[in-house]
Amino acid sequence: MPLALPALALGAFCIGMTEFVIMGLLPEVAADFGVSLPTAGFLVTGYALGVVLGAPLMAALGTRVPRRRMLVLLMGLFVVGNTLSALAPGYEVMLAGRIVASLTHGAFFGIGSLVAAELVAPGKRAGVIALMFTGLTVANVVGVPLGTSVGQSAGWRVTFLAVAALGVVGLLGVARFVPELPRPAGVRLRDELAALRDVQVLLAMGMTVFGFGGVFASLTYVAPMMTEVAGYDATSVTWLLVLFGIGMVVGNLAGGRYADRAPVQLLYLSLGGLTLVLALFTVTAHDRFAAAVTITLVGGLGFATVAPLQKRVLDRSAAAPTLASAVNIGAFNLGNALAAWLGGLVIAAGFGYTAPNGVGALLTATALVLAVVSRRLERRTAAATVGPGTPVRARGAVSRPAEPVARRG
C-alpha cells in the first residue's frame, strides 16, 4: 500500500474529528462563552455551510495548483482554523475559526480522492477511496469519544489544540509521502464547470444529498430519541455513537471492496436497505437492544454508499474531475444540513423524537429512485450509442472483420 494513503487517511481523521467533536462539547463551549445552546449550535451549522461553500471555491483554486501542494495548503489552513478556535477569546472568533477550518473539508476529500485513485489501477480505485475515508469513519469511533472525554475533563480548548497538532502531523505526512502530481495539462476552470453539467454527475450528487440526508436526519436527534424513547441514560449516548461509528467503518470498507465489481447493485442494496432500516427505526427505537442494532445498521448501510458515489463522480468527470469531486463532498454536508432542518420541523410539529427516522426513510427512498433513473439513462445512452442495425456480439464471441464479397464478373 502506498504510504500516501495513510497520510491522506490521517488528514481525513483530523477533519472528521473537528467536524463531529463539537457536538459533544457544545454545553462546555456555551457555558464558557456565556451563550445559549441554540446559539452554540451555530458552530455546527456554520461548519456545514462552510463546507458547502468552500468546496467549489477551494477546488477552483486547486485547478491551478499541483495537487500535493494544494493538499499541504489545505492542511495548513485547517491547522490555522483549529488553532484560532482553541485560542478564541469570544464566541464570534471561535465561529470564525470553525468556518476557516471548514473551507478545507470538501477540497481535501475531493482532491485527496483524486490522488488516491491515481495511485492504483483503475479496477481498484473505489477500494483506495474507501481506505482514505476510513480516516473519517475511525474518527467517529475513536477520535470523537476521546476528544469529548478530554474536553469535558481538561477543557474543550485542549481538544481543539490536540486536533490542530494532529493536523500538523497530517500536513507533514502529506508533504512527505504524497507524490507530486501536477494538474492535468490543458484543463481549465471552464472544463471543470462543464463536468458539473453532466446528468450522471448531477444524479450522483443528488443521491449523495438525499442518501446521507437520510442518515443524518436520524443521527442528529439520536440523543433525545435514545434517552426519551428507548430509555437509555444520557451517559450511554457516547457508546451508542461508537456503535454507529463501527457501522460506518465496516460499511465504508465493504462499499470500497464491492464498488469496483458491482457499483449499481451495491447502491440499490445499500439505499434500499437504508430506507427499510430507517422506516423500522420508528418502531425499534422503543426497544434498547433493537435500537442499538438499528443505529449500527444505519451507519453501515449509509457509509457503504460513499465509495461508489465518489467513484461514480470521478468516472463521469474524468477529463476535469477536481471541482466535481469536491462539490460531491459538499453535497454530503448539504444533505446533513437539509436533514437536520427537516427533522427539527417534524419534532417541532409534535410528531415526536422518532419522526426524523421517517423523514430519513423518505430521503433515502428518493436517493434510490435517482439511482434507478441513473441506471436507466445509462442503458438508454448505451443503446443509442450502439444504434439500430449494429450487430450484437454474443457473450464470449470474438468479432472478426467481415470477409469481402467477391465481385461477379
From TrEMBL:
It is a multi-pass membrane protein. Its main location: membrane. InterPro entries: MFS, MFS_dom, MFS_Efflux_Transporters, MFS_trans_sf. It is found in: Cell membrane. Residues 4-382 form the Major facilitator superfamily (MFS) profile domain. The chain crosses the membrane at residues 42-63, 70-89, 95-116, 128-146, 158-178, 199-224, 236-254, 266-283, 289-309, 330-349, 355-373. Residues 384-409 are annotated as: Disordered. It comes from the Bacteria. Pfam families: MFS_1. Keywords: Cell membrane, Membrane, Transmembrane, Transmembrane helix. CDD domains: MFS_NepI_like. This is MFS transporter. The lineage of its organism: Bacteria, Bacillati, Actinomycetota, Actinomycetes, Kitasatosporales.
